[in-house]
């Protein structure tokens, strides 16, 4: 396996095809949990954890069970169940193993089940026919891209809270416009790979 | 609340996109054209109504401890059905909506309605709630798709409006255009709602 | 303990009901889906190689040799008019901006490109997605397979040059790479 290929996958997942700003995956937490940098960072870490783990498990399930038995049409239902139970397991595990970590991430974990970035990532990995190593690299890249976008966005929103915004645009509208401007900045990465 | 009022609720007052801001991923991703927006809206409506109906029918049989996984299974089943039927009978739409058909599963709007409405109401009301929310979602998606297609490609539903001389603002159909257009539309919606409230 | 078993059973019941429903509807739609997909591919092959009346995939041994030799080649069909081979339709997948771009290239036995068609892509709407336009695809028509095709950003001045799509050089390169792979495959393996 050449490392060049893996590096391209990683960079393109973080910057060029950023999950939030160009693929539109994970918009709900992106808009919902981005009022403060600290919480945004917590969400980013929780998502990174679940994304990487779930894409490995869905990869194995797809290739050892669904593909072998010709049950590809159960993909959606199988993947979402894996993600939902994984989130539960991770939640229970962290609670027992590290109460401090649980305090930091706990609130975000249940929200991750309906984070379409996680399911989207699992499906994209299968569609692109990545092997296991590529899947892992792509997942880490996607997760870093998500965390990067949400933390940067939270940084801007913290300052935005102090700005004088027209009444009708306060709250979500101005947040969306901000995200649009960030997305323009990320378009600049297009020529990178 | 009467059945008709339940239905009307989702259209304007609690519009899933403009007021509740739910289901943002497909909203932003597939609204590059009016046609795709409408198709996504209708597909979501179908899943929403069916899932609401089944959840409401089974509301006394599903223990509350396992309600979330049960709802997810029910929703995923309908999404897979839509996926299959669109693949078989509407292959062009299937191709252009792509990844976002399976992702209807994680549209928070659907799980949200199942949890907060269908699990507590009769089947008839659950259906009217699903229809109202679904149509509210669909018209907002179609509007957003139309605005982006009009500015970004100079056409609506694939029909050219401005003719050859029009230089489209391509940015509107690129990702940033989705955020900008939705942000401005939500702003206008807020402004109109406030004006109406002030007049009333 | 008893409660857990009960909850598990209810969940099992719901999931098995879901599996049955999906299994049945899969059985009901799979035939149509395959027919629709097959028809779409047949129509696309006909578009890029209009002279052919019907298409057959290459014989297994030769096909496997080609497919194993280059993982970017997906399908190779020979186009027949009556008993004679009039050309080939070659499907390739090359990385573009948003994922693989699948292109079918039609090449006549005389070594001319008879047409190309972008059949599957996830490129940006309004930019890369314009690769499916007839205007872009027709540029490849009648090019000779002996020379490599290159992408330029201005009006092409030499033969075998393609003008890139505005704002979508990566997509234009991906399509052209696909056509070049098909071209080389024809030169090295099929024309002899």
Structural account:
The complex is a heterotrimer of chains A (193), B (200) and C (192). Chain A is an all-alpha fold and 193 residues long. Chain A contains 9 helices and no strands. Chain A has one domain. Chain B has one domain. In chain B, helix 1 packs parallel to helix 7, helix 3 runs antiparallel to helix 7 and helix 4 packs across helix 5. The radius of gyration of chain B is 18 Å and the shape is globular. The mean pLDDT of chain B is 88. The model of chain C has no long low-confidence stretch (mean pLDDT 87). The longest helix of chain C is centred in the N-terminal third of the chain and has 47 residues. The N and C termini of chain C lie far apart (73 Å). In chain C, the strands form 2 sheets. Chain C has a 5-stranded antiparallel sheet, with helices on both faces. A two-stranded parallel sheet of chain C has the order 6-7. Chain C has one domain. Chains A and B meet through helix 2, helix 4, helix 7 and helix 9 of A and helix 2, helix 4 and helix 8 of B.
Keywords:
heterotrimer, A: 193 residues, mainly alpha, B: 200 residues, two-stranded antiparallel sheet, 8 helices, globular
Number of domains of chain B: 1
Between the first and last Cα atoms of chain B, what is the distance in angstroms? 22 Å
User: Major sheet of chain C, described briefly?
Assistant: 5 strands, antiparallel
Biggest interface found? A-B, 44 and 43 residues
Write down the Rg of chain C. Answer: 22 Å
Shape designation of chain C:
globular
Order of helices and strands of chain C: HEHEEEEHEEH
Q: What fraction of the residues of chain C are assigned to beta strands by DSSP?
A: 25-35%
Instruction: Please count the beta strands of chain B (DSSP E, at least 2 residues each).
Output: 2
- Percent range of helical residues of chain B: 55-70%
Mean pLDDT of chain B: 88
- Structural class, from secondary structure content of chain B? mainly alpha
Strand numbers in spatial order across the main sheet of chain B: 1-2
Low-confidence stretches of chain B: none
Percentage beta strand of chain B? under 5%
Measured between the Cα atoms of the first and last residue of chain C, the distance is 73 Å
Taken in chain order, the helices and strands of chain B follow as HHHHHHHEEH
Strand order of the largest sheet of chain C: 1-2-3-4-5
């Amino acid at each position: 396996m050449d490392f060049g290929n893996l590096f391209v996958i990683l960079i393109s997942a973080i910057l060029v095809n950023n999950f939030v700003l160009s693929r539109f995956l994970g918009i709900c937490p992106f808009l919902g949990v981005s009022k403060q940098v600290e919480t945004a960072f917590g969400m980013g870490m929780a998502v990174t954890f679940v994304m990487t783990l779930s894409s490995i498990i869905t990869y194995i399930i797809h290739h050892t069970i669904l593909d072998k038995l010709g049950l590809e049409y159960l993909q959606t239902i199988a993947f979402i169940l894996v993600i939902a139970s994984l989130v539960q397991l991770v939640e229970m595990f962290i609670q027992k193993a590290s109460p401090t970590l649980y305090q930091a991430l706990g609130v975000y974990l249940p929200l991750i089940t309906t984070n379409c970035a996680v399911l989207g990532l699992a499906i994209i990995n299968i569609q692109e026919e990545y092997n296991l190593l590529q899947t892992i690299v792509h997942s880490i890249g996607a997760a870093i891209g998500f965390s990067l976008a949400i933390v940067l966005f939270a940084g801007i929103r913290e300052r935005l809270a102090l700005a004088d915004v027209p009444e009708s645009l306060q709250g979500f509208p101005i947040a969306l416009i901000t995200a649009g401007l960030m997305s323009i900045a990320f378009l600049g990465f297009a020529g990178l790979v | 609340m009467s059945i008709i009022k339940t239905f009307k609720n989702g259209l304007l007052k609690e519009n899933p996109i403009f007021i509740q801001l739910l289901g943002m991923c497909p909203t932003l991703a597939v609204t590059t054209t009016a046609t795709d927006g409408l198709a996504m809206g209708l597909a979501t409506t179908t899943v929403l109504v069916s899932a609401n109906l089944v959840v409401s029918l089974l509301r006394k049989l599903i223990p509350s401890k396992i309600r979330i996984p049960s709802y997810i299974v029910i929703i995923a089943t309908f999404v897979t059905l839509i996926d299959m039927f669109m693949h078989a009978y509407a292959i062009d739409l299937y191709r252009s909506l792509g990844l976002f058909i399976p992702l209807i599963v994680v549209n928070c709007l659907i799980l949200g309605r199942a949890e907060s409405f269908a699990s507590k109401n009769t089947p008839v009301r659950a259906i009217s709630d699903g229809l109202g929310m679904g149509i509210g979602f669909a018209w907002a998606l179609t509007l957003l798709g139309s605005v982006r297609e009009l500015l970004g490609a100079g056409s609506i539903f694939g029909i050219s409006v401005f003719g050859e001389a029009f230089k489209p603002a391509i940015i509107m159909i690129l990702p940033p255009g989705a955020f900008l257009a939705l942000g401005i539309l939500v702003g206008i919606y807020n402004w109109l709602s406030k004006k109406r409230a002030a007049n009333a | 303990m008893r409660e857990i078993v009960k909850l598990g059973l209810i969940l099992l019941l719901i999931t098995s009901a879901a599996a049955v429903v999906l299994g049945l509807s899969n059985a009901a739609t799979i035939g149509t889906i395959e027919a629709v997909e097959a028809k779409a591919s047949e129509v696309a092959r006909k578009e890029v190689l209009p002279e052919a009346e019907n298409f057959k995939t290459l014989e297994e041994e030769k096909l496997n040799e080609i497919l194993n030799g280059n993982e970017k080649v997906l399908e190779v069909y020979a186009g027949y008019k009556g008993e004679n081979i009039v050309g080939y339709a070659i499907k390739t997948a090359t990385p573009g901006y948003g994922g693989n771009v699948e292109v079918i290239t039609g090449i006549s036995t005389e070594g001319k490109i008879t047409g190309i068609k972008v059949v599957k892509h996830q490129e940006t709407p309004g930019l890369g997605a314009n690769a499916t336009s007839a205007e872009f695809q027709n540029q490849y028509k009648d090019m000779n397979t002996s020379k490599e095709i290159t992408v330029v950003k201005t009006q092409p001045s030499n033969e075998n040059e393609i003008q890139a799509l505005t704002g979508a050089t990566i997509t234009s390169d991906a399509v052209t790479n696909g056509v070049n792979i098909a071209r080389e495959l024809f030169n090295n393996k099929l024309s002899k």
